[in-house]
Specification:
With about 100 residues, the chain is mainly alpha-helical. The protein has one domain (about 1-95). It contains four helices and no strands. It has helices spanning about 1-10, 30-50, 55-60, 75-90. α2 packs across α4. The longest helix has 23 residues, at about 30-50. It is globular, with a radius of gyration of 15 Å. It starts with a helix and ends in an 11-residue tail after the last helix.
């Protein structure tokens, strides 16, 4: 949840232009939209894990079409899913649950 928390903190700052490391230059509205994307991504991965889906199944089934206009959406979505999945499995303890296959 580090990306979510840091993005929430960024939105508390007073700025007009945001220059991120992996995205286009934008404004506060763009940062809010990015936050919505990563929140939706985390929710979709968590829901998928709870329903017993494996990482390959998650990569095939998660479609966040409302964000398909974001730069590199098609290329990065599977990588983003994998990153969230790995973070949840390693850091949150979801990987320790006997009802979840890694």
């Amino acid at each position: 949840m580090g990306m979510i928390n840091s993005t929430r903190e960024t939105l508390k700052l007073d700025f007009e232009v945001f220059v991120g490391g992996h995205a286009d230059i934008g404004d506060k509205t763009d940062v809010q939209r990015y936050l919505s994307y990563i929140e939706a991504l985390y929710a979709a991965v968590i829901d998928g894990i709870h329903s017993g889906k494996t990482l390959p199944q998650l990569k095939k089934s998660i479609k966040l079409d409302g964000y398909s206009d974001l730069s590199n959406y098609n290329e990065w979505l599977p990588l983003n899913i994998e990153g969230v999945y790995e973070r949840l499995m390693e850091e949150s303890g979801m990987g320790w649950r006997p009802d979840i296959e890694n």
